[in-house]
Amino acid sequence: MVPFSEKQNLKTMVKAYVQGLDEEGLEMLADGETELAVESIYEGLLACVEDELYLKEFLPFGATYRVAGELGVRRRRDSVPIEKVMREHILLRDVFWDFRRARAGREHDFPTEKRVCQCMNSLLEATVRAYQTREPTVDVLDPLRDNATGVFNSLYFMTRLEEEVKRSERYLRDVTVVLLHINSQFEPESADESELMRAVARVLRRNSRASDILARIENGKFAILVPETRAQDAVFAAERLRMQVMEYLSGLGDLYAEVDIEIGTGSYPEQGEDGEVVFQEAIESLMREEHGS
Q1: Could you tell me if 225 and 175 are in contact, meaning their C-beta atoms sit under 8 angstroms apart?
Q2: Which pTM value belongs to this model?
C-alpha cells in the first residue's frame, strides 16, 4: 500500500502530466483506464526510488512493465503514431525528474538515478514492443508465467521438475523442491494479496540462484526447484529465504505485520524417485510444519 505522502506526490505528478498534454492527449485520458495506467507507472517509479528491489517490476514479466505494454497496445489500437507516444514518454520522464529536483533536501544519488533510468528505458521498451507486435509483449503474455508476479506458473514448474529428476538420475545428482506458503489476512486474488505476492516474488528472485526455477504454483504458494542440492542443504537455504522475505516485508509497513511463512521440502533421491513423489513429499512436509509436527 502506498503511504499517504506518496499518494499526494502521485496526484501532483499525474496532474502535471495531464497539463503537459495537448488536446488530443487529454482526450486519451478521458477513458479513465489510461489515467490509471499513468498513475500506476508513477507509483512504480516512486516505489523504485525507495526500494531497489522494485526494479524487478519494470523488467519483462514485471507488473509495471505489463501496464506500460497494455497502455502501448491501447494507443496503437487508437491509431496513435509512435512518434506521438515517444513525446508522451519524454513528458512522463520530464515530469518525474522535475518533481525529484523540486523536493527539498534531496541529495544527488547516482545509484538511485541510474535505477530510475533503467525503469524509464524499460517502460519505453514495453511500449515499442507493443507497436512492433500484435500483443503488449510476447513475454508478458507467456502462458508459462504467473500473471500477478511474472514468475513461472505450476505448469512450467511441474514440467521442469520431471526433467530435472530424470537428469539427476542420469548423472547421479540430487534435486530438491522447496515450497513456501505465504499466510496473510488478505482475501485471495485481492489487490492487497497480489501486491504481497509481488513483494515476495521480488525477494525470491533476488536471492535465488540462476540455476533455480522459481514458480507461483497457486494462491499464496511459491515453489523453487533447486538442482544439485541435498535435502538438508535445501532446508538451510529455505530458512534463509524465509528470513529474507520476512525482513523485507517488515520494512514495508504494518500492512504485512501478520504475514507468516511456512516451508516444506522434498528431495530426489532421498525421499522419492520421480517428480510427482518428490513434490508430494514437499507438500506433506509443508503440512507438517503448518500443524506444528
Answers
A1: yes
A2: 0.83
Work out the average pLDDT over 104-126: 83
Q: Does residue 115 sit in the same domain as residue 191?
A: no
Same domain, 97 and 37: yes
Query: Strand order in 221-227's β-sheet?
Result: 152-153, 213-218, 221-227, 175-183, 260-268
Q: Residue 188: is the preceding peptide bond cis (ω within 30°)?
A: no
138: in domain? no
Cell of 180: 513456501
Q: Are strands 221-227 and 213-218 parallel, antiparallel or unpaired?
A: antiparallel
C-alpha cell at position 10: 502521485
Q: Are 135 and 74 in contact (CB under 8 A)?
A: no
Q: Which residue range forms the structural domain that includes residue 77?
A: 4-132
Neighbours of 133 (CB within 10 A): 15
Residue 76 has pLDDT above 90, yes or no: no
Q: How confident is the model at residue 4 (pLDDT cuts 50, 70, 90)?
A: very low
Q: For 172-212, write each residue's pLDDT tens digit.
A: 999 999 999 999 999 988 989 999 999 999 999 999 998 99
Cell, residue 139:
513475454
Mean pLDDT of the chain: 87
- d(CA 131, CA 95) in angstroms, rounded, equals 24
Cα–Cα distance, 2 to 47 (Å, whole number): 8
Grid cell at residue 274: 520421480
